Amino acid sequence: MELELEGEVVEVNPGRLRGQRIAKLRSSDGGEVIFDVIEDLLSLDKGDRVRIVIADERPFEGALESYDFCGHGYLVESEEIAGKTILSLWGILFLFNRKLGLKLNKKYYLCIQKSAQDLRRGPPHR
Question: For 2-115, CATH number?
């Protein structure tokens, strides 16, 4: 299973913790993602174009280098109850404004690829 979302960062605001920022991404299909950005792990600014990939398998070694950030985590609450998707990557939250069809108690990998000009596809997952 692999899901992909491409879009533009439309907001970046300071978080409550030092080194934390909160970004909002608007995808090309009209969806929105609000997520934590830890400055030591990933630098994002308003206007950046990014690709988010969610998969149930770890990207193979060659693919990892094509991403600016990768982490793994779990669904916080059933999508049926929440009405949206909330993923926690060891406390780094990603809130998608719609259901993505993910399951509780299953590990997911989320990777972000930043692009200054275009959204070129990185190497596939294996």
Answer: 2.40.50.140
